[in-house]
């Protein structure tokens, strides 16, 4: 009996196993592949059907756009389907939404077609003359059309080949391909922002000329690192966004990966505000099984879109007459000034227009009484200048704008009045802005019924009669007073003029009157005569320092006794040298960053070339590090702050200026400290300016021995990476509070700081570098991190050196620092 039962059970198991083996191919096929067969279709309706990927992560179908009516506003899209915040990662008809009842069909003829309810074609992919055998929504997020021939199935089109604004893992952006940002959070149509993998290998971000699609002349973000070498930009399955060569070699990592792809969804999206962001979203939450409600942004470029977009032409980030401000989540918001409104509320990129009648220039006195200036703290419109001149008081500057019907806004900074005409361009909030912006607003004859803003009072009706009598009496008194003062002033002026003429004849010296800025110079700078600067410096007697391009003197500018540093350059006589000086002043004078020494003005008179900078009361970093011995070394916190400040200043020069600036002479002597110990980069005498699109240059050796990158000595084209090398040496000097070269070192292996630092790091003994520094020893983890960053910076191969943006993230700890390789010998650069 037992044997019979055993036989029965064995037979049953065998039969079940055979049945399972017979059914297994069908089960596997149904689970791993959900092909869309010819003749299949979807219809845009309130409850949508989708073609779903095998895992259920992605779905292809219709998505109704938020804010649209029930009868319209559908995207044919690929969405992430397993998270509460259904996220569109690709769309077919972003510029032409489909109405309710529209249909997408994979026809029996092998074409994918989107049509409206009347049968009019809205969209179809470009597949040439080939016909698809089926479609499929893949687990990667790629919707594909495939063709079968001779038992071979090949993909003939996929959504990955025609991206909109998003890259998913395993997706690549190849040369001449682009991402175009959508207009807003809920408007998926193409905006003015483009992210392009150019044919020359550069990865760039542009704005376009509204309403055209042609890119502006100036890119507001560019990799600049691998021109001609970069072949594609790819997001791999580990979440790393890499620049790849044609053979697949990783040239650089733009964004590092986040969490594991098994636990997180990843995407890189070129957002509506013109910023490229890396996002991740958990796939599950084992602890509470509650889905998070939003994506986390781990990395983004550029750091500040409001200041990134700039240039002599164009409307900036937010359009004319508007200004850009960063929110807490680093997304930008566009705003209008008081009594201005958006030209198109549904499209903020078109800017703002005044909500009042235009000024009548034929009646200046009337217009002067009808307008007022309202202060807008920290709001700067960097362009639209049409005049700039000295003004002793802010009131005088304001009155000049009120009297000029062309003036829409005026800025007052350091006794300089700058007038700007409408439309105002490149507006943004700048925390470090010096001076004040005042916008002109109408207080009468407004086109709206709204009451005037509180910052300019209007007399009440019952007060007008009394005020009229008072004003008449005041005017009569003023006229009499004016006549008396005018007579006295005329007599004094004639007397003084006679004395001045006599004095000029006796001394033979004529003072050159302050001239208005030349057309070729930035209108934000003051123009000085040589005589003025000679008087301000006491005859160029008190020397603050000297460098390769000139000597710096201490000066005092009247009337406020402002301390300045006056740099007298070597005399330039050739036309080429004169043009170089003009170009340098124009570009550097247009920079505005808290970690760059501010250029106040210039002198360009005859053979005299002088630059006037803000005075830095705490001297140079060289004096701080090497001037006082071990007992007076700065704290570790101060040194770390200085390192970060220099890095941010260099990043601004390399990436955020409309014209890239390579400093070429980064060293402690050229890092100055203000009264609050804020570090600022100075001395641009050797700076090299690169034209838009230019990433490298051939030029003679510049800079200071010991800080020069190896390519200077190998007749190689130089890039911004030469500044990275110099920063690496400077960073080691900050860490160790000693010079790059100490011939009197006790041990021979400690003479060259770079060699010694790498040796200590390689042996796991970084503490030897700071063993006599208790403050640094207490922060040994950060010391090791800084040393690793420095070793990456001083690699012989420029392509191995990170860009300044990545260096900043490394120093701040937001990016993991890989183990650096041996930077090779440094003896050739000492």
TrEMBL record:
What domain of life does the UniProt record list for this protein's source? Eukaryota
* Entry's EC annotation: 2.7.11.1
InterPro entries registered for this protein in UniProt: Bulb-type_lectin_dom (IPR001480), Bulb-type_lectin_dom_sf (IPR036426), G-type_lectin_kinases/EP1-like (IPR051343), Kinase-like_dom_sf (IPR011009), Pan_app (IPR003609), Prot_kinase_dom (IPR000719), Protein_kinase_ATP_BS (IPR017441), Ser/Thr_kinase_AS (IPR008271)
**Residue ranges constituting the Protein kinase domain according to the UniProt record:** 538-815
Query: Matching SUPFAM superfamilies, A to Z?
Result: alpha-D-mannose-specific plant lectins (SSF51110), Protein kinase-like (PK-like) (SSF56112)
The residue ranges of the Bulb-type lectin domain are 27-158
- All copies of the Apple domain together span 361-443
User: Which cell locations does it reside in?
Assistant: Membrane
UniProt GO cellular component terms: membrane
- Keyword entries, A-Z: ATP-binding, Disulfide bond, EGF-like domain, Glycoprotein, Kinase, Lectin, Membrane, Nucleotide-binding, Receptor, Serine/threonine-protein kinase, Signal, Transferase, Transmembrane, Transmembrane helix
For ATP, which residues are the binding ones?
A: 567
**Catalysis: reaction(s):** L-seryl-[protein] + ATP = O-phospho-L-seryl-[protein] + ADP + H(+); L-threonyl-[protein] + ATP = O-phospho-L-threonyl-[protein] + ADP + H(+)
**Where does it primarily localize?**
membrane
The membrane topology of this protein is: Single-pass type I membrane protein
**In Gene Ontology terms, what is one molecular function of this protein?**
carbohydrate binding
Signal peptide extent: 1-30
TM regions (residue ranges)? 469-495
Family membership, please give it: Belongs to the protein kinase superfamily. Ser/Thr protein kinase family.
Identify this protein by name: Receptor-like serine/threonine-protein kinase
What is the protein's species of origin?
Answer: Linum trigynum
């Amino acid at each position: 009996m037992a044997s019979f039962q055993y036989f029965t059970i064995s037979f049953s198991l065998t039969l079940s196993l055979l049945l399972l083996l017979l059914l297994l191919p069908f089960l596997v096929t149904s689970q791993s592949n959900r092909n869309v067969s010819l003749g299949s279709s979807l219809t845009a309706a309130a409850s949508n059907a989708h073609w779903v990927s095998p895992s259920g992560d992605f779905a292809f179908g219709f998505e109704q756009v938020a804010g649209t009516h029930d009868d319209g506003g559908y995207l044919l899209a690929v969405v992430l389907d397993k998270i509460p915040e259904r996220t569109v990662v690709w769309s077919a008809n972003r510029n032409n939404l489909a109405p309710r009842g529209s249909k997408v069909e994979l026809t029996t003829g092998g074409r994918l077609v989107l049509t409206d309810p009347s049968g009019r074609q809205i969209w179809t992919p470009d597949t040439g003359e080939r016909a698809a055998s089926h479609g499929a929504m893949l687990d990667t997020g790629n919707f594909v059309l495939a063709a079968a021939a001779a038992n071979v199935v090949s993909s003939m089109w996929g959504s990955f080949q025609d991206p909109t604004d998003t890259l998913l893992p395993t997706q690549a952006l190849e040369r001449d391909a682009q991402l175009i940002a959508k207009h807003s959070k809920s408007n998926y149509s193409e905006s003015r922002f483009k992210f392009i993998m150019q044919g020359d290998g550069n990865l760039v971000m542009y704005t376009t000329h509204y309403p055209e699609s042609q890119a502006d002349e100036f890119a507001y973000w560019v990799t600049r690192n691998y021109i001609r070498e970069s072949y594609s930009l790819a997001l791999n399955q580990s979440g790393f966004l890499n620049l790849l060569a044609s053979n697949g070699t990783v040239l650089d990592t733009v964004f590092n990966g986040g969490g594991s792809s098994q636990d997180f969804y990843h995407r890189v999206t070129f957002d509506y505000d013109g910023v490229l962001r890396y996002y991740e979203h958990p796939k599950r939450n084992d602890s509470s099984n509650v889905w998070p409600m939003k994506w986390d942004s781990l990395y983004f470029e550029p750091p500040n879109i409001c200041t990134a977009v700039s240039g002599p032409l164009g409307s900036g980030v937010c359009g004319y007459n508007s200004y850009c401000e960063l929110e807490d989540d680093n997304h930008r918001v566009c705003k209008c000034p008081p009594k201005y409104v958006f030209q198109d509320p549904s499209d903020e990129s078109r800017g703002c227009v005044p909500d009042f009648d235009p000024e009548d220039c034929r009646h200046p006195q009337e217009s002067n009484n009808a307008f007022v200036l309202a202060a807008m703290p920290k709001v700067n419109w960097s362009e639209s200048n049409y005049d700039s001149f000295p003004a002793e008081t802010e009131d005088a500057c304001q009155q000049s704008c009120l009297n000029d019907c062309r003036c829409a806004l005026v800025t007052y900074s350091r006794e300089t009045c700058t007038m700007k005409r409408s439309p105002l361009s490149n507006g943004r909030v700048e925390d470090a802005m010096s001076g004040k912006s005042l916008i002109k607003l109408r207080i009468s004859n407004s086109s709206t019924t709204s009451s005037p803003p509180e910052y300019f009072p209007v007399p009440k009706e019952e007060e007008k009669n009394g005020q009229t009598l008072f004003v008449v009496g005041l005017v009569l008194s003023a006229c009499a007073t004016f006549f008396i003062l005018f007579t006295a002033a005329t007599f004094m002026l004639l007397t003084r003029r006679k004395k001045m003429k006599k004095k000029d004849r006796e001394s033979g010296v004529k003072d050159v009157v302050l001239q208005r800025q030349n057309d070729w110079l930035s209108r934000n700078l003051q123009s000085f005569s040589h005589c003025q600067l000679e008087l301000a410096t006491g005859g160029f007697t008190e020397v603050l320092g000297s460098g390769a391009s000139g000597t710096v003197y201490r000066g005092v500018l009247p009337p406020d006794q402002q301390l300045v540093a006056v740099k007298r350059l070597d005399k330039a006589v050739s036309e080429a040298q004169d043009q170089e000086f003009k170009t340098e002043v124009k570009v550097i004078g247009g920079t505005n960053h808290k970690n760059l020494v501010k250029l106040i003005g210039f002198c360009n008179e005859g053979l005299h070339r002088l630059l006037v900078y803000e005075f830095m009361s705490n001297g140079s970093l060289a004096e701080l590090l090497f001037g006082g011995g071990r007992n007076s070394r700065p704290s570790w916190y101060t040194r770390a702050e200085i390192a970060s400040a220099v890095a941010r200043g260099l990043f601004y020069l390399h990436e955020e200026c409309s014209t890239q600036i390579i400093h070429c002479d980064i060293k402690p002597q050229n890092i100055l400290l203000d009264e609050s110990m804020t570090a600022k980069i100075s001395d641009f005498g050797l700076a090299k300016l690169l034209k838009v699109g230019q990433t490298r240059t051939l030029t003679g050796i510049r800079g200071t021995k010991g800080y020069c990158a190896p390519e200077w000595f190998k007749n190689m084209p130089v890039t911004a990476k030469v500044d990275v090398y110099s920063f690496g040496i400077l960073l080691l000097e900050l860490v160790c509070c000693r010079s790059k070269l100490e011939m009197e070192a006790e041990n021979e292996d400690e003479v060259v700081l770079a060699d010694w630092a790498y040796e200590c790091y390689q042996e796991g003994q970084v503490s030897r570098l700071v063993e006599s520094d208790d403050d640094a020893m207490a922060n040994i983890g950060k010391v090791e991190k800084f040393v690793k960053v420095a070793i990456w910076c001083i690699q012989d191969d420029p392509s191995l050196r990170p860009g300044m943006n990545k260096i900043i993230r490394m120093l701040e700890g937001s990016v993991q620092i890989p183990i650096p390789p041996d930077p090779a010998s440094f003896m050739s650069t000492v």
